[in-house]
Design goal:
The chain is of the alpha/beta class. Helices cover 55% and strands 12% of the residues. The strands form three sheets. It has a five-stranded parallel beta sheet with strand order 2-4-6-1-7, with helices on both faces. Strands 8-10-9 form a three-stranded antiparallel beta sheet. The two termini are 45 Å apart. The protein binds a DNA duplex (22 and 22 nucleotides) through α5, α15, β9 and β10.
Length: 413
DNA sequence: TGTCCACAGGAAATACGGGGGT
DNA sequence: ACCCCCGTATTTCCTGTGGACA
């Protein structure tokens, strides 16, 4: 007399319990860990001699403090996910404990610019960090913002380390921002200011005004991407905490590490891949196999594109849809900007959208190119003009999915 | 050899809106 | 109520260009 639905549910539940893959899900996602656990994880990673050399460099650089000198600024190079941020924070934490022991006044703050922002927002963020101001959208003059920051630091006299993470993400007026940080601020406050600027663009300071650049005396520190061995260490530490050992097939860690190091050397992405593989395995009630890792990698890739297009501004979505449409209509392997623009105007009238000018449309196309949703190259067809060739190279299946997402967003069809 | 297509893509101008000070 | 400062998004205006064709 048992309800078949209940039986099915209970079978499924007991199945997943018996076949547990995941021991503690939280260790697959840093956001869910409490501070102490994060620290413990970091300790484990650094104790495995990962990033040892960099920590030594940092120590050497900041040893000036204990001789009473102000260390020069530090520029840290390295791609995202190479552990710049974590290593620096971990190091500064240790340093601040050391200073406490020696009664040296020391303070450090961390400002993350991983999402790009204009000069004004960056200054505003900084002021908020120092509790000198509330958050403004816009409206105040830059001058006022700077004064607020200065007065917040007016009474502090010790060492002050300010980390500006992803420092090349200041859009527009980067000069103003760095002139302030590098030239003006140190003169206005008594604190001994040291900047740590991290960037993943090697040519970063070159966009800066030469006068500011020449004022920026700094040492360089390089973070190489993690190699497969480092990634294996990092993954093993996660696996130990998050998963049941017998649920991980041999070679899985090595495979994930190899995939990740080949593509980007990004530890965070490697962990995401591990996490997704584990979820798949758990759903299927199997171990984590090499095949599942491949599947998970594919899904993650697809998710990226879908998420990107779903959260993109409307006109970008419209442009993408028009390109797909033009591409279908053309039956060719490529589309020109003009073709796409015609379709775009049609699309806009269908979607009750005010179409943008061709010039703006051109920018949308190049933006799609940057996101790798399409491939774009300029092509000269002789007396038939110069245009951009737009090529759709994603798998047809994914293209249809993207199209569906856009149509859904516009509530068409 | 010159012409001319069909755009590329830079620069400046404009539109619009939030927010402070007075 | 008004002016100023700042932001983003677009438009307007512009000069530049590789190569097929006459």
């Amino acid at each position: 007399m048992e309800n078949p639905m209940i039986r099915r549910l209970s079978d499924q539940i007991s199945g997943t319990v018996a076949n547990r893959v995941i021991k503690d899900r939280r260790f697959l996602d840093d956001e869910q860990l409490i501070r102490a656990e994060q620290l413990e994880l970091l300790e484990a990673i650094f104790n495995a001699n990962v990033r040892d050399a960099e920590i030594k460099e940092l120590t050497y650089h900041f040893s000036d403090i204990f001789r009473g000198n102000n260390p020069v600024h530090l520029t840290v190079w390295g791609k995202t996910g190479t552990g710049k941020t974590l290593t620096i924070q971990y190091f500064l934490g240790l340093l601040s404990q050391l200073c406490k022991k020696s009664n040296i006044p020391f303070r450090h703050e961390h400002r993350d610019l991983s999402t790009p922002r204009p000069c004004f927002r960056a200054l505003n963020d900084l002021a908020c960090l120092l509790k000198a101001s509330r958050r403004y959208r816009q409206g105040l003059s830059l001058e006022e913002m700077m004064t607020k920051i200065e007065s917040a630091l007016a009474n502090y006299q010790g060492f002050f380390v300010l980390v500006v993470d992803e420092c090349d993400h200041i859009r527009r007026d980067a000069d103003t921002f760095y002139t302030f940080l590098i030239r003006r601020l140190p003169q206005q406050i008594k604190a001994k200011l040291t900047l740590i600027l991290t960037s993943n663009k090697l040519d970063w300071p070159n966009d800066l005004d030469p006068r500011v650049k020449s004022f920026l005396r700094s040492n360089d520190l390089f973070f190489n991407p993690y190699n497969a061995v480092d990634l294996q260490q990092i993954l093993k530490i996660r696996v130990d905490r998050a998963l049941h050992k017998q649920a991980v097939e041999e070679g899985v860690i090595e495979k994930i590490a190899a995939l990740a190091s080949r593509e980007h050397g990004d530890a965070r992405k490697a962990v995401t891949l591990l996490s997704r593989s584990a979820q798949l395995a758990e759903k299927l009630g199997s171990k984590i196999t090499l095949g599942l890792v491949d599947q998970a990698a594919g899904e993650l890739e697809e998710d990226r594109y879908i998420l990107m297009i779903r959260t993109a501004p409307v006109h970008l979505q419209a442009a993408m849809a028009s390109i797909i449409e033009a591409w279908r209509a053309a039956k060719r392997s490529s589309v020109t900007t003009g073709d796409a623009y015609d379709k775009y105007k049609e699309f806009c009238s269908k979607a009750a959208l005010q179409p943008l000018t061709p010039r703006a449309f051109g920018d949308l196309v190049s933006e799609l190119g940057i996101y790798a949703l399409v491939r774009v190259r300029v092509l000269s067809r002789g007396r038939y003009g110069r245009t951009r060739e737009i090529i759709l190279e994603l798998p047809a299946e994914l293209i249809s999915k993207i199209e569906n997402v856009i149509m859904l967003n516009f509530q068409l069809r």
